[in-house]
Amino acid sequence: MAEQILFIIFGILAVGSAICVIAFKNPIHSALALVLTFFSLAGLFISLGAYFVAAVQVIVYAGAIMVLFLFVIMLLNLGRLQAARQINKAKVFAVIVGIILAAEAIYIGIRVYDGTAVSPSQAGSAVVGAAITTEQLDQIATLESTYQLDRAEINSTYVPKIAEQKSTVETLTASEANQLIEKLQGEMGKPDRIGTVLFTKFLLPFEVTSLILLAALIGVIVLVKREDPDTAA
Length: 233
Description:
This protein is an all-alpha fold and 233 residues long.
């Protein structure tokens, strides 16, 4: 119950601060509202059990990225851009796009809710002792490959926590298998699992991203260090 209350509070803060980002006229105030949005998102990640992602949200986004945002605001001196108030067509377009995105988010939320609403009835029908299904075994196998888990580790560590009298995945019932799948999905928030997946399965995208950030850094240095034509003359 407490987790649900915190999730609602952080959700309201995230939405409210995100609205303030686009509502404030002063770019500095918008940047500060964005910091609050990042912290609120970190709280949402914590309530979902994704502790590593929450820490990255604060350290990287609320820290380093916001410093870059403020640097750009100061570099471009956005306080002088008063002409932006005259772009009425862009504002109308932004409102239309915002409405479309909001409708899309509501549609996705309804579909997600409908999908989760089906699972309790399935779990309820499995309480009578139905055996684990092939689909559930496939889901467990997918989790094993994604999180670099070993079936022996699952049988020795996770299965006894779900059913004390059972030691293998195949002996679980369908309802117990659902509990096991939820528990394995919770592994996503652990730093050791994320690090294992990041530096094995996704090593190449990770290195490519580092090169992209390096190129962006070089571009910033070039923009800052370029000579003023009057000074060069």
